[in-house]
Amino acid sequence: MYNPRFEKEAFKKEVTNNVKTLFRRTVDEATPQQLFQAVSYAVKEVIIDDWLATQKKYDEDDPKMVYYMSMEFLMGRALGNNLINMTAYTEVKEALDEMGIDLNAIEDEEPDPALGNGGLGRLAACFLDSLATLGYAAYGCGIRYHYGMFKQKIEDGYQVEKPDNWLKDGNPFELRRPEYAKEVRFGGNIRVEYDEEGRTHFVQENYESVLAIPYDYPIVGYNNHVVNTLRIWDAEPIVDFQLDSFDRGDYHKAVEQQNLAKNIVEVLYPNDNHYAGKELRLKQQYFFISASIQAAIVKYKKKHDDITKLCEKVTFQMNDTHPTVAVAELMRILLDEEGLGWNEAWNITTKTCAYTNHTIMAEALEKWPIDLFSRLLPRIYQIIQEIDRRFVEQIRKTYPGDEGKVKRMAILMDGQVKMAHLAIVAGYSVNGVARLHTEILKNQELKDFYQMMPEKFNNKTNGITQRRFLMHGNSLLADWVTDKLGTKDWITDLSLMSGLKRWADDEEALKEFMSIKYKNKERLAEYILEHNGIEVDPRSIFDVQVKRLHEYKRQLLNILHVMYLYNQVKEHPEKSFYPRTFIFGAKASAGYIRAKQIIKLINSVADVVNNDRSINGKLKMVFIEDYRVSNAEWIFAAADVSEQISTASKEASGTGNMKFMLNGAPTIGTMDGANVEIVEEVGIDNAFIFGLSSDEVIHFELNGGYNPMDIYNNDPDIRRVVDQLVDGTYAHGNTELYRDLYNSLLNTKSSSRADMYFILKDFRAYAQAQQEVEEAYRDKDRWAKMALLNTACCGKFSSDRTIQEYVEDIWHLDKITVEV
Ligand code: 26Q
């Protein structure tokens, strides 16, 4: 597709000129980083025109907008993605080629913005891409952390965290907007005042405050000139640090505010699916929420004078409970600043806020100690007290005499503020992120709420953007798909992928498909050689588990199985065994000791296995350091097998599973999260499903677990690998290094239950499923067909589909078009 706005000669001139004005250099003298900047500014130049046109259109059409509130946006690199969405990738690549500049090398200079942990943050990024592509007015609202997700180094097999100073060279795509700064207040006390008419006013005194400064990022829609905005807030002290001040009190206040501002946005909490009740985290939450809601109200009021109709133009979607103070902040503004009465304010709030739940894991639920909460956010706390008081009254009216309901459902209970309860009570929609997950919410975790307000509950199965995870990450396959479908329309309508099914029996097509996979495996093998110094054979099965490290995701099951295979290969060298490369990638939260032990174990087993010449390279293991969006794109493209082996019921949805599927890798997995729907789409014969069902897991849990000793005592293969954790095999004779992992599997004392995640219980079924993977892979034609069908059946899992469902069922947005 020719894009006239990227007329080659003009673009080249622009780049040359940027190098000159930014760095006083010529193209030949410029460093790769400088070239990245110069190219990015040239691209930004074009984006800005569309950005302006889009905002003008919003001004004219006044469509309803969604504010997607999220503590995390895991955007990944912008340059390549923007070029793809502007349909200018090829032209720009050619133009740069002519200048002797390699676009891929330039792309590699961009820091990979990691303002998120994992699934939840990446989902937010995919949603922004889809919203812009579908032409819906949307703002992403978040925090401009100065340090994103840490960089992971592996030293002596251990994870070491290094700071991610992603802003150090400046960011070409961001736009600082000081004119939209907002003040955010913390602490102090609330004084009650009465005016002449006898009305009550709440005045916050003795507070500390910071100035929230927005930075805007363009979100480029695919081939439609729509450019939305991701607005992330930085913090600055509100009173200028006045060194000439003679007033000691002011001096101290200035220092304090300086510190508050510096700390608040310093770093992303690297916890995934785990809540740690840290005061600074709550400060971060209120900081970006208060600024975002204030800005949204100002924007609304510019065009509308009836605040009671807010819900007709605005909806706030809360990405998990992290932004839930939004409910009370909106109430505060309506009550204290707009002067509305409680009922009016509540009526507006409960038509404007909606909540997405991403987990059922108890340790991930946010519950703030009341003393901390009320000290930091005194007015917000008062408002939550009143919300709670009225809600408890309503529970008692609905269920007279049932104080159990009150205890289970109240927002304030046992000295805690329960954010999920607040989100459900105030939200007009509560959604889960995959069908199974939503059913578990309705029937187990949130049963009481579902019974009382069933109309709020709905499912929105997650999705991913094919623009990044196929077009950008796997251009070979993208081109092949276009060729086979005879259209590029799949780029904005992934359901068209089903048209590939007719190639599933075409020998030539299957050969092409697998040869693309092979090329992507070669590309990954080169990356691995360069980064790990390990040689892997692209003809071996690439079996991949990449995701955050968490016990419930069961990387330990995978590694125990590798240990088992290694024992088999050594014991039966005569048996045929199809060569496999087990690839892992995972970051562990810095304070999650057991997760870090699992990383060390993976690396230790890799050391032993990779250096054992006697197994003839039948088994290889690779731990990819610093798994992140940019290397993920290559990994998905190169995978043969997708490991999705969470304990059933624990993975709300998963989205990595969809990225593998899109790239033609069949799933080995449990019936958990979106795996259920993947199997439904691709057919049970094109996946390798094993293990306990979520009902079985929940049943065991309700009955105090199961006894892993029965398995340990009766299955010698399993006993052997478990014992190998403490016999020094993988620890240079050290019997204590993995004692805790051993205990976690067998010993009730080490955790509340032995083998909480049913690893030994599912082991045999997993090994059996892996055996079936091997047999299927040996049959080249069968495997090729299976892989192709995975790509062909992935249509449902586009975030375009997910967003369209949010729009129809929850947000009710108007579509806009931008012409230039
Ligand atoms: C909470 C409190 C304090 C500090 C950190 C946190 C915190 C941070 C991140 C809690 C949870 C998260 C992230 C959760 C997450 O990524 N969940 C995943 O969301 C995906 C998108 O819906 C799902 O596909 C995954 O199944 C789910 O695990």
Which terms summarize this structure?
820 residues; alpha/beta; Rossmann fold; 2 domains; 10-stranded mixed β-sheet; 6-stranded parallel β-sheet; 31 helices; 23 strands; 14% strand; binds ligand 26Q
Secondary-structure-derived class: alpha/beta
The separation of the N and C termini measures 17 Å
- Radius of gyration, CA atoms, in whole angstroms: 27 Å
Quaternary organisation of the protein chains? single chain
Number of distinct helices = 31
Helix content: 40-55%
The CATH architecture of the largest domain is: 3-Layer(aba) Sandwich
- Give the total of domains: 2
**CATH topology call of the largest domain:** Rossmann fold
Description:
- This protein folds into two domains: 62-77 and 112-462 and 805-811, Rossmann fold (3-Layer(aba) Sandwich), CATH 3.40.50; 466-692 and 756-797, 3-Layer(aba) Sandwich (Rossmann fold).
- Helices cover 48% and strands 14% of the residues.
- It is built from 31 helices and 23 strands.
- Strands 1, 2, 5, 6, 9, 10, 11, 12, 16 and 17 form a ten-stranded mixed sheet that branches.
- The model has no long low-confidence stretch (mean pLDDT 96).
- Ligand 26Q binds at residues 117-120, 123, 269, 271-273, 275-276, 281, 358-359, 364, 366, 433, 462, 651-655, 673.
